[in-house]
Amino acid sequence: MNAPINEIFTSIQGEGKCVGCRQLFIRFIGCNLNCSYCDTPQRKLLDSVCRGPEEGQTLPNPASLNDVLDCLRRMDNIPVHSISLTGGEPLLHTDFINALTSSFPHKYFLETNGTLVEALKKVIKNIDIVSMDMKMPDAVGKKLWREHEEFLALARQKDVYVKIVVAEETKLTDFDQALNIIRSIDPNILLILQPMTPYGGYTAPKPYKMLSWQAMALKKLNDVRVIPQTHKMIGQR
User: Fold this and answer.
1) 3-state secondary structure of 106
2) 193-221: per-residue pLDDT in tens?
3) At a CB cut-off of 8 Å and minimum separation 6, what does 77 contact?
4) Would the pLDDT of 36 be above 80?
5) Is the pTM here over 0.85, yes or no?
6) Helices in the chain by DSSP H: which ranges?
7) Shortest CA distance to 133 belongs to which of 157, 116, 156, 114?
8) Looking at the DSSP assignment, which residues form a beta bridge with residue 160?
9) What is the mean predicted confidence (pLDDT) over 20-28?
10) Burial class (CB in 10 A: 0-12, 13-18, 19+), 40
C-alpha cells in the first residue's frame, strides 16, 4: 500500500474554519483539476522522494503506508488538532486514506476540491471535518455545479464548510450560483470567502468587493466569514 506524497510536516492551518490550529499535514501529489491560480503546481507530478517531518528526512516515493505511519508515530508527542489530508487532491487516493485512518486513529481533516463524489463515499466514514472548495468556472475552465452540489449534499453528514477563493476577476453570476447551491442544501453551512493571494494572472480583490460579496452572501446564508491565507503572512508553509 503506497501513495504519491510530496511532504509530511506539522504546522498551523492557515485557511478556513480551523485557521491557527496546529495540524499534522500529509500533502498528496496529483489533482483532477488544473486551477489557473493553483499555488502548488509542483505537487501535481511525482517527486522521487517525499519530504519527511524531520530536517533532511526523505522517504521513497510513492511513500509506503508503513513509512507514513512511522512518521506519524514519531510526531505523536506534538499535540495537534487534527491530521490534514491535503494536496493536490487527496480523494485520488481513497484506498490509502482508508488504510491510514484505520491504522492510526485520530481526527482527520480533508481538504478537497469538492468534485469527486464517488471517492468521498469510500472514505467519508473515516473523515471528521471536510474543507470543501467550490471552484469558479473561470478558474477551472468548466462548470462544476452539479459535482459540487452532489458532493456537498454527501459531505453534509460531517462537519463541513465551503471555501470560495475570490479574485478581482471572479464573476458575480458565478458567485451567486454557488450561494444558491449552498442555500439549497443547508443555509447553516459555513462559507469562507478567501481573498485571492495574487498568482497565475489573478489579482487580489479590492476590499469593498469582499465586504459587498459577504453582505450579499449573508442574505442567503447564516454564517459567512472573510479569511485570507494567514500562513503566508507569517512565512509558514
Assistant:
1) coil
2) 999 887 767 888 999 999 999 999 999 99
3) none
4) no
5) yes
6) 65-74, 94-103, 117-123, 137-140, 145-155, 172-185, 207-218, 230-233
7) 114
8) 130
9) 96
10) middle
